[in-house]
């Protein structure tokens, strides 16, 4: 298939620039992939869509304040966006400047911190923080929350909490697993009391998630690498869910990619390492029975993933419906509850 086949028209006014006051107040578009049927609901109605014995799987990554602003010794401004921590003071990052910095260049940050450019790897730069403090410590103090490029405002102190899931635990992401932003503590407690089980995987979302596909043919696209982890506890939780006839429901495309990476052999197994899994039409799902997700950018790998799961025509029809009904799109926008076009035939 071609990238252009995943295009849809979206008025800019529907791109959410800020979160709602209440996390669970978002709207929820339900798509039955098997029939294409659509239903408009609210996210707080999720209770009615889940059953006792179902298993929700969340991505517990924590977003780092991963954007730094500095200057070169010539005075030119520099913006650094972390892609991945490579050690206590070493990172792989995107660097924006009037002229790409060469190896050996020093970038001066707030509070007297300095970063040295070690070299380049494709579009990314290897950078090293000078001094004794860890890079993560410095980021937590002077970094800015890395709001997506389609949010046309500067980050605010409120984003430190709202661009983060309430269950975020493991620092390492530079973008939020946005489907999880709709859950608050009260909803999690209510679902647990109703017999819905929960487990957590980890995928540290990279800035590459916002990069457009450059190849027109999907077969030519290469995914950026992201670290993910599935523990023995998750594998056991999935097996228990299957044994009692429950469904495995991925909260977000990152949770789905993590689970399907760990189940690539046909059986879910513990896993820790990088994934470059590109889920596109024709993919054999081995683990996930339903998906909670936000609305995604046109021609993005995430929209392709949803089409692979719920059907190409069905998904794009749902997006056209969402536009017509003025749903809010992207990271701070509304959500979908999606069931597959074909039932999971995995373990």
Short synopsis of the structure:
With 347 residues, this protein is α/β, with parallel strands linked by helices. Helix content is 20%, strand content 27%.
Which term fits the overall shape?
globular
Low-confidence stretches: none
- The CATH H-level homologous superfamily of the largest domain: QueA-like
Structural class: alpha/beta
Q: What's the CATH first level of the largest domain?
A: Alpha Beta
Which bin fits the share of residues in helices?
Answer: 10-25%
CATH fold type of the largest domain: QueA-like
Individual helix count? 8
Residues in β-strands, percent: 25-35%
Distance between the termini: 28 Å
- How many distinct beta strands? 17
Query: What's the alpha carbon Rg, rounded to whole Å?
Result: 20 Å
CATH architecture of the largest domain: 3-Layer(aba) Sandwich
Biggest sheet features: 9 strands, mixed
Order of H and E elements: EEHEEEEEEEEHHEHEEHEHEEHHE
Mean pLDDT level: 95
In quaternary terms, these chains amount to single chain
Strand order of the largest sheet: 2-1-17-16-14-3-12-13-15
Query: How many domain modules?
Result: 2
Enzyme class: transferase
Protein name: S-adenosylmethionine:tRNA ribosyltransferase-isomerase
Pfam family, one: Queuosine_synth
EC number: 2.4.99.17
